[in-house]
Amino acid sequence: MSEIKLLFRAALATVVLGGSAFAGELTANATLKADQPGAPISRYIYGQFSEHLGAGIYDGVWVGTNSKIPNVRGIRTDVVTALKDIHVPVIRWPGGCFADEYRWRDGVGPRDKRPSRKNNWWGGSPETNAFGTHEFMDFAEQVGADPYVSINMGSSDPTEMREWIEYMVSPGDDTLAQERRANGRDKPFNVPFIGIGNESWGCGGEMMPEYYANEYRRFSAFFHKNDDNKAARVASGANAFDVNWTDVVTKNAGRFMDAISLHYYTIPTGEWSKKGAATGFDKAAWGKTFAQTLRMEDLLQKHIAVMDKNDPTKRIGLYVDEWGTWYDVEPGTNPGHLYQMNTLRDGVVAAANFNIFQRHTDRVKMTNIAQTINVLQAMILTRGDQIVLTPTYYAYKMYAPFQDSTAIPLDVTAPEIDVGGSKIPAFNASAAKGKDGKTYIAVANMSPDDSVKLSVAMGALKAKAVSGQVLTAEKMDAVNAFGAKPAVAPAPFKGAKLSGDKLTLDIPSKSVVVVAVD
Ligand code: AHR
Asked: 198: CA distance to ligand 1 center in Å?
């Protein structure tokens, strides 16, 4: 059986246990195929998305040079330090829906001369443009991340795109490069990724796929990919299961793109009008959340199938450049600011998705969680000069060794459980060989009640030592609160035992476990 088939089997094969109303211990066996290394796991799988939305940029990243909050050139030091610590590889900016109304010229030049606009997509809030191209590039450079710039296709034209690109990357003496220099940046910015439009089927212009493909080709003609502009061109991709979009766009414009995006949000109820609460939820909501989030597997398979048809050499990457949980906003907050709390559930959701992405890295080359700070499934929440690192942040931290690792097939059959009426596999898992030569195994236990005893046959791997970390808490909706010791943070994992060629992991309910095997 091919490695890919093995991996799919791992994802799909389940055994119905007939419900698990009571806390218990589930058992499962896994086989590690260390002698059959798979595709590289790009570090960009662990990317971020930061939009001009609510307090995502203003307060979250940008506090201004005169702020009492410690900052470097107006950018929060605490946030940069935290993001460096999880090795953020790429940040997508400025949107989102915001991108297709954004005029780059509003955000360059002296800050006190920049125009104020209305952020029509997100609560009508004032957009001061204090944070523009130079500030974003500075932020990315401080974090050590690559910039991924989404350009305005929906309400702009190819000239505006071409000029923005020239402004950012031209090394020459042309007027746009000189303008950049006059604005404080001598050498060109490093811009490895440029998205052409965002959600062009919706907020980015309400286009049909055939129309978008034509427009995309027109913009591509003026993109001028060359020695100065080496950016990967990313086409605006489908909404969730709209496979026809991916089919038409890759068929009609595939040769002009390096990647196409895909957006999928986890909404517990599946209903935009009443999505479900971020905290104070019951087991039924937990079960629904995981049932929804695990659809990512099927979603990727469907889009990859049409891409394989239109691009059999797998030249075009699939970038899941918006994903994550989307709940009802916190009561009393601006509904347009998408501010939600982040609990243990979100940390486990993140890990479950990482395990899925890592099984498809021959096609999935980047993902960007929505969104980095104060918006949707955030890594960081800020309040004045305080920050909180969320359970999702810690999931990213635990999975950092998977960046630029090599996938190792892990053949595993997870028991199926019933959580408040939703049938889901109790856990999912993935494995890889890290850059440091160690083998990493990660497990997301999605059962709110049951621990899992996982026996891993290590096969060709001669393991000598194992160590790891676990992320869990007493309560399903445990949060990390401002000014308090984090309730959900990685702790040393004591449940690993090596015996001969067998590794046994005792994984607590509702947890994320990552172990390193030497
Ligand atoms: O992440 C919030 C919004 O969700 C983005 O602006 C948009 O692209 C998507 O609909």
From this structure: 9
Q: Using CA positions, which residue lies closest to atom 3 of ligand 1? A: 96
Among 358, 375, 404, which residue terminates a domain? 404
- DSSP category for residue 218: H
- Catalytic one of 160, 215, 322, 416: 322
Q: Which of 166, 199, 297, 416 is catalytic?
A: 199
Task: State the Cα–Cα distance between residues 43 and 359, nearest whole angstrom.
Answer: 14
Indicate the DSSP class of residue 359.
T
- Digit-coded pLDDT (tens) for 283-295: 999 999 999 999 9
Query: What spacing in Å lies between the alpha carbon of 133 and ligand 1's midpoint?
Result: 20
Count of structural domains, the chain: 2
CATH number assigned to the domain comprising residue 398: 3.20.20.80
For Cα atoms 425, 29, 518, give the angle at the middle one, nearest 5 degrees: 110
Position 2 in a domain = no
DSSP class of residue 62 equals B
pLDDT single digits (tens) 321-364: 999 999 999 999 999 999 999 999 999 999 999 999 999 999 99
Q: What does the block give as tokens for 115?
A: 């125009």
Is 322 annotated as catalytic?
Answer: yes
From residue 279, alpha-carbon distances to 196, 251, 339, 402 in Å are 36, 43, 12, 29
d(CA 37, CA 45): 18
Burial category of 423 from C-beta neighbours within 10 Å (exposed 0-12, middle 13-18, buried 19 and up): middle
Label residue 173 exposed, middle or buried (CB < 10 Å: 0-12, 13-18, 19+): exposed
pLDDT of residue 462 exceeding 90, the answer is no
List the residue whose alpha carbon is closest to atom 8 of ligand 1.
96
